[in-house]
Amino acid sequence: MPAPAPDVSALGPDAAPPAPENAAPATPRPRRLGRALLPIALFLLGAIGTSWALQRQRPWPESAGMATKWRAFEQVADEVELVFLGSSYTLCAVLPAVVEAELAARGQRLAAFNLGIPGLRGPDANQVLAQLIARAPPRLRLLVLELPDWSPGPRQREVNDRAVFWHTPAETWAAIGCEWAAHPELGRRLAHTADHLSLAARRLTGLGLLSEAGLRALGHLEPAERWLDGEAASRERGYVDLAEVDNPSAAAGHRQFRAAALKWEQEVRALAQAPRQGAAPALEAVAPLRRRAALIARAPFEVVQVVGPVDFSSGPLQGLVEAGQLAPFWAFEDPRRFPELYTLEARYDDRHLARLGAERYSVHLAARIAEHLEASSRP
Amino acid sequence: VIFTELRFLAFFVLVLAVHWALRSPGGRKNWLLLCSYVFYGAWDWRFLGLIAASTSIDFVVGLGLGRTPAEARGRRQALVVTSLVANLGLLGFYKYYDFFVESAAELLRWLGFEADLPLLRLVLPVGISFYTFQTLSYTIDVYRGHLAPTRNLRDFALFVSFFPQLVAGPIVRASDFLPQLEQPRRWAQVAVRAELWLFFCGFVKKACLADNVAVLVDQVFRDPAAHTWTERWLGSCLYALQVYGDFSGYSDMALATAGLLGYRLMVNFDFPYTATSMTGLWRRWHISLTSWLRDYVYYPLGGNRRGPLRTYVNLWAIFLICGLWHGAEWNFVLWGVVAGSFLMFERVASERFGFDPEGRGVLRRVYTLWGWMVGLTVFRSPNLAAMGDYLVGLHWYVPREGEPQVAVDPRWWLVVVGFGLLHAVTCRGILDRAVARLPDELFAVLLGAGSALALALAATSHQPFVYFQF
Predict the structure, then answer these.
(1) Which pLDDT score, from 0 to 100, does residue A273 have?
(2) Higher model confidence: residue A277 or residue B222?
(3) I need a labelling partner for A66 at 20 to 30 A (CA). Which of A304, A323, B166, B377 fits?
(4) Cross-strand partners of A353
(5) Strand-by-strand arrangement of the A142-146 sheet
């Protein structure tokens, strides 16, 4: 008696495999080169045409709180006379109410707004500056602009969709130039160039454009947007106290900072000894600063640049000023002159001020603004 | 490098252009072998030695089997055991060493012994589970006399490392692929339009569907307790879409890239979510693995020829292996047990009550999708406690306490409904027929426009293929 045939029904087909999903039947292939190239040309026509149409709909970058903050600014844009623009450093360092009160005490009545945006880097700031110039708030007299880190940085390039927005051919070229000036090692130059080209390709092809919009429509928010919602963005005229928002990564940084207090004190001592004048110009900063200078020249309001009480020395930037390549800026990053801004209780972490530090810094800043306004109003 | 990245498209255009520009078949195969090694080396060049070693061992074993007469059974068995030990040894070492050592340590601790066994924390070489099964299929087929051993090392190395299917399948049989390498490939035989359409569909499944829903799947599975009953169901449904879109999309792209190079790979998916039983679903899901397990494990164990009890044991055994093949975690083992149990249950129902795995009915579809999602929940959960919590929350209504705001937008259900409709339409061939009727020129324009739209809809964070980890 022959052995029963094995039952394979539970395990898969034992006949010829089925036709692939979505497979269309084959078509005859063109023989001549011209006929072969025609479908390629038509394919490119369809792709480029659709991509072009999509690019025209490219929205202002929504990511990481940028649009949230801009919408909050729009609500007061017609009344505001003094704006602070910068990264999360500015966001957590300038209390408009304190600045207004200090200015009022000195006889200057100005309505202020903190337009600090988390993670804002040089090219992003240029984008906001251009937007601000186009918006031309009618009563805006003075824009205090944080001198940011000009390098887009790997984190910024890879995960922040804002970087895609500004990777136009011209900006990409400039960014690559900065990378080559900043990094002597060929490997890093090539890697960063590839990153920029990849972002430029994303911009050119519209990669992810509808995906981001779709996910946003379905309520998906980036981490920064979860803590910088509309209410947080407009409360206290744009200022945010990191201790009062639900930002787990910032809270973790705060705990680490407090646990390593000794390290911070050592860093502050080193910063106090860093050269403050005559340092060699940081060549990588020149090209983008020129691009910003061109934007500032078009602004219908006055712009001053500032370095807050951060954890690095602006010595190289001072070198640029001395070389005539950068307009003078206000510097507050000297622990010897501003020791109260570098105490442990004044800081939330090494990069951000706590409310106490923000109050102290706002007083210093207001004094400087008042002096500046008085000087500029003199005949 | 993954198939949905722009750099892969650039790489593939170069490979394709040079491949067809070369005149000699040998030159083309040399070029493909080089590109395949470059492709694999781009993941981690250190593992090139591993794939080369696996290739060499099976090539030599194959030659040895070819030279050994059928009567010398002992020597032939020794050769095939050498291949099994070497291949499964490498796979076991890289994939299962830590799992078994950790499990042993836990068992010893449970028994009251001190257990501090050394863990290696090795990086799992990408695709090792796939190419190990491929090389094993060659050795076993040669041993069984179903396939003549190849004497061409280049061809054999290309069979093992062919880049379209190297890292995530389909699992190619030597008996399917080696004969293709012996015949010269002709551009005129390539169904360009069909392959481009297949690649496009695969890209949409992976980049536009799977990668986008991954955002919500991660959110729900990361913290199931924070989600309601309906949200957990939504998370499970979307995970089912993610896994299908991810793996089936990858398989489509693998088939299409191989097809454009003139090679045919095994079809891996056949609209699994239209199945009306778990048995039917497994006939349509990861066909290259299930048929591999059927031919090389289930049949040698006796299949269904040794009585019902032995059949059930065999079914369970292959699904246990299937679970372990997917990963060295207990949840994968349990997933295999769950899958095997469903099949066993259906087999009993078939024998006792005449249950037809291919029958029709809404309730049967609901049962199949429910069973599949229960299995996937086991598969996706990070540990047994989380799995238990998720499954309880999936089957008992748990109102969320406290916060009034909705954590998950209910419009996500539209994605599930939209996919269901599209799946139903495509499985009937409606879309394919409509596409096939288009004139070439219109097809080219629409494919271009569709590609631009697909790029715009693609998730910006490239999710690695789910099956890369296996």
Answers:
(1) 79
(2) B222
(3) A304
(4) A347
(5) A112-116, A82-86, A142-146, A302-307, A330-331
Residues B357, A339: Cα–Cα separation, whole Å: 78
pLDDT value at A16 more than 60: no
ipTM above threshold 0.85: no
Q: Write the Ramachandran bin of B172: left for phi over 0, alpha for psi from -120 to 50, otherwise beta.
A: beta
The CA-atom distances, in angstroms, between B129 and each of A269, B132, B133 are 55, 5, 6
Sign, CA dihedral A165-A169-A173-A176, equals positive
Q: Smallest Cβ distance to A13: which of B198, B287, B303?
A: B287
b/e map A328-357, b = 16+ CB within 10 Å: ebbbbbbbeebeebbbeebbbbeebbbbeb
State in Å, rounded, how far the first CA of chain B is from the last one: 17
B-chain residue closest to A20, CA distance: B267
* Cβ–Cβ < 8 Å for B435, A33: no
Res B288 pLDDT > 70: yes
Interchain proximity B452–A47, CB inside 8 Å: yes
Q: From CA B24, how far away is CA B30, in angstroms rounded?
A: 10
Q: Does the beta carbon of A258 lie under 8 angstroms from any beta carbon of chain B?
A: no
| Per-residue pLDDT reduced to its tens digit, B400-446 | 565 544 578 888 899 899 998 888 888 888 888 888 889 989 999 99
Contact present, A125 and A145 (Cβ < 8 Å) = yes
Give the percent of chain A with pLDDT over 90: 25
Max Cα-Cα span within chain B: 77
- List the single best residue of A9, A14, A21, A212 to mutate versus B (max B Cβ within 10 A): A21
* Residue type present at position B203: F
pLDDT, one tens digit per residue, over A337-347 is 899 999 999 99
Assessment of whether the complete model's pTM goes beyond 0.80:
no
